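Thread: quick sanity check before group meeting

JM: Hey all, I'm pulling together slides for Thursday and realized we never actually wrote out the predicted structure for the chain we discussed last week. Dropping the sequence here so it's in one place. If anyone has concerns about the input, flag it before I start.
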Amino acid sequence: MSFKPQIKIPATYMRGGTSKGVFFKLDDLPEAAQQPGEFIDQVLLRVIGSPDPYAKQTDGMGGATSSTSKTVILSTSTQPNHDVDYLFGQVAIDKPFIDWSGNCGNLTAAVGAFAISNGLVDAERVPENGIAVVRIWQANIGKTIIAHIPITNGEVQETGDFELDGVTFPAAEVVVEFLDPADANADMFPSGNLVDTLEVPEIGNFDVTMINAGIPTLFFRAQDLGFDGTELQDAINGNSDVLQRLETIRAYGALKMGLISSLEEAKVRQHTPKIAFVSEAKKYVASSGKVIDEQDIDLCVRALSMGKLHHAMMGTAAVAIATAGAIPGTLVNQAAGGGDRTQITFGHPSGTLKVGAEAQQQAGRWLARKAIMSRSARVLMEGCVRIPDPTN
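JM (edit): ok, ran it. Output follows.
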C-alpha cells in the first residue's frame, strides 16, 4: 500500500490586530497554486485544516474561529507606485471553500512587516531607524492601503507599549491608512440612501444602513434586532436560533445590496457582507473583565464574522464604522449622537477602539477619502507548513 508524501511550503504564522493567519510568498507556493483556482484552494484548505466537521481545525493551522482561519499571499507589487500585492483568503471551518470576496483589515497590519522582512520592499524605502511607509495593493478589492511600520536598526520593530483591546500583550503600534475605502465601481451606499428598510419574510422589517467602505456592511439598531448592544460572544454564539435568524437577515441584506443574485449564493459568500448592530454608548463589562464606561465611548457596536459574533472587531468593519460614523444620518452616526465626526471611539466585546475617517459629499454622492486606525502585529512562528502532496 502506498500513501501520499508530504510536501513542505515555506510559511510564516503571524498575528495582525486581533486576527492570526498563515502568510506565504507567492513564489514559495507550488507552481500550480500560484494562480487562482481549485488547486490553490485545496492547498490552503489543507494548511488550515478545513473542512472539519468537528469545527476544531485540529489537523491544521487554523484556530477554529473566523479570526484565526485566515491565509495571506504576498508578492512584489504588479501595480505602479506600490510595494506589495496582498491577497486574502477567509477559510471556512466546516465547509470546503475559501471566500476571496473581501479584505482582512486586521491582518493588513502584518502585511507591511512581512513584506519588509521577506525582501518584498525595496531596501531604499526602509530607513535604518524610523518609520517605513509600505504601499499595499489589496488585490481582493483593488484598493490602496498604507502601513506605517516602525524600524529599529534596519529591522521591523515588533515589541512596544501599544495596547489593543482584544490582544493580551502590548506591541509596537502600526498605523494603517485605508485610502478611498469605498467600492470604486459602485456607490458607497448601494441604494443611494443613508437608511433603507430591509424586508425579511417571516422575520420582520428593519431600518438598515448599507455601506460599501472597507467591506460591505449592514448596520442595524441593536434594539430592532432584539439586542441591548452590549452583548458578549456567549450571549449570541451559544444560541443557534439567533445565529440562523441573523444569517437569514444577512442573506436578504446581501441580496438588497446587489452582492448576490439569489439567496442560495449567500451560503458560499459568508465573508461579505458583514452584519453589525449599534446602540448609544452604554456601560458594560468587556470579555476581559475591563469595565467600559459610557463616557469613554461614542457608541457600542457588535459585528458578526462568518456566522459568529466577533470577539472584538474586524479591521475592515472598523473602516465601515469609521466611514458611516462620519456621515450624518446613518444609523452609526445617529447612535454616536449625530453631527459631523472625523473620529469616533466605539465599544466592542473586548474593549474599545478609536477610528477616524474623512468623507465628503460631491454632487449629492458621498465619497470616502481615508480611514485610519492603529493596530499591532508580530511574527509568531517562521518555517514550513506540511501537507499531503495534492498532486499525487
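AS: nice. The mean pLDDT is 95. Residues 240-257 form the longest helix (18 residues).
JM: adding both to the slides.
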